[in-house]
Amino acid sequence: MTQVTNTVRFVLDGQIKEAVGVRRTTTVLDYVRESLHRTGTKEGCAEGDCGACVVLVGELAADGKTVNYIPTNSCMQLLPSLDGKSLKTVESLQSADGTLHPVQEAMVTCHGSQCGFCTPGIVMSLAGLSDTHAKCGTCPSRTQINDVLQGNLCRCTGYKPIVDAALQASPTLIQDAADVALLKQIQRPTEATIGLDGQTVIQPVLRTKKGNEFVAPATIAEVAEYLLAHPKASLLAGSTEIGLHVNKQFSRPDHIVYLGNVAELKAIKETATHWTIGAAVSLTAVESLVASAYPDFAEVLRRFGSPPIRSTATLAGNIANGSPIGDSMPCLMALDAELILRKGDKTRKVSINNFYTGMKANALQSGEFIEAVVLRKATAGMAFRAHKVSKRFDQDISATCCAMSFEVAGGTFKNVRVAYNGLSPYPMRAAKIEAAIEGKSADQITADSIDDAIAASFTARDGLRATWAYRSLVARNLVMQFLEESTSEGVTA
Ligand SMILES: Cc1cc2nc3c(=O)[nH]c(=O)nc-3n(C[C@H](O)[C@H](O)[C@H](O)COP(=O)(O)OP(=O)(O)OC[C@H]3O[C@@H](n4cnc5c(N)ncnc54)[C@H](O)[C@@H]3O)c2cc1C
Ligand code: FES
Ligand code: FES
Questions:
Q1: Which of 113, 311, 364, 368 could form a disulfide with 119 if both were Cys (CB 3.0 to 4.6 A apart)?
Q2: pLDDT(1) > 80
């Protein structure tokens, strides 16, 4: 298949759509509303918070017979990343004979809508959940429904009628019988394209006359090669940060390299002791991966943004972005995660604890990128605890998130690792707090000793989201709570 250079091709309700002449940074939301005139999908915040813009993006499943859908905030996603995929908007749900989707029907009967602005987004989030459960023959629980609505704000109705509707609606598959064959037709290449003289041809989705491009490579080698040639290119993973830059700061990168079509980067490799998590693996997948070994890490991820954010956002994007309040980093730091960094055909491993060199500054060299995150598995006697403190429970930014790993041997704490976000210009380990705990028993560790270690570790600074007095108190209490619970729960080597 030859890829044309000014056209994004995707499947919409049994038809191949060709979006011709769009910009690299046109969002899915703008295209859906302004070009497809599907105005059911709404723009509320244009920053991934309200969920009025939720749509379902489909990719052919591994069996080649079905489509896997993920809910996404269409305001955050760039249209060229849709190339080779399928799209379902709220208009896709109604059958040709006018029958509503069971979720829509239940929203009517349960009075789940008032002004209606949030309703299409809510219906799409619930229709995605309904499809997932129909595929495995189960009904969603109240908790699963509450979780799936984390990113859908309704300011009129109150959530009870909406949750009632979700409980009432029977799980139903998304109608996509005609889409599978079409998805096969427009599938992007899965292997590198080699030119006549043996060189790799990185096919753009879009290219302007000036030579600016949106490329969607198929292999890591292509990504690496492209970055060597264009070291200032923007890597696009889940787009939950880049989408913000596009919408709120009017960022218009010349070269965008989309990682979502690189199968190697979407894979998780496993050995007896470690997982190697590719840079394009979604946080939703990481949440499932760590759920039994590190339930607190999974809980931090469960409260990370919302399902449409987590369905595309990645660990690598969180790490590379390097926000002081990035939530995955304290967990990864306390677990001594390593990053595989690639430049050209060379890779090196860097501990995440040595990755940051300053506020929003890191060890990546020009043309280098994060290929994967290596995470050790839990071992016998090891405890891992983490908790995010924020004003709201769901969909909020950390005041601080603390993560801690340790062992208890002979009644004393060993191999202690403590890391925080929100207390310093970038997330970091707190060596002085670790020293205040290492080799001691629970009754030798006082709140005062942890307070002193916190004061010696960080510069006291009030922030928009919390005062220093609050943050440092929470930082101390989390450590004391983790230690106390571990001894009362009898974590022993
Ligand atoms: C509504 C909303 C809620 C959010 N909630 C949270 C939250 O609770 N906690 C939190 O920590 N964050 C949160 N975020 C921030 C964001 O979701 C995370 O930082 C996310 O992990 C970014 O991943 P991404 O794949 O979407 O990155 P992208 O937006 O694709 O990229 C982010 C940056 O990383 C770079 N990059 C991406 N991949 C690589 C790579 N492999 N190598 C090198 N550089 C790379 C990009 O070039 C870009 O500079 C939220 C954002 C939104 C919009
Ligand atoms: S418009 Fe608010 S999440 Fe997209
Ligand atoms: S019905 Fe008005 S915001 Fe939800």
A1: 113
A2: no
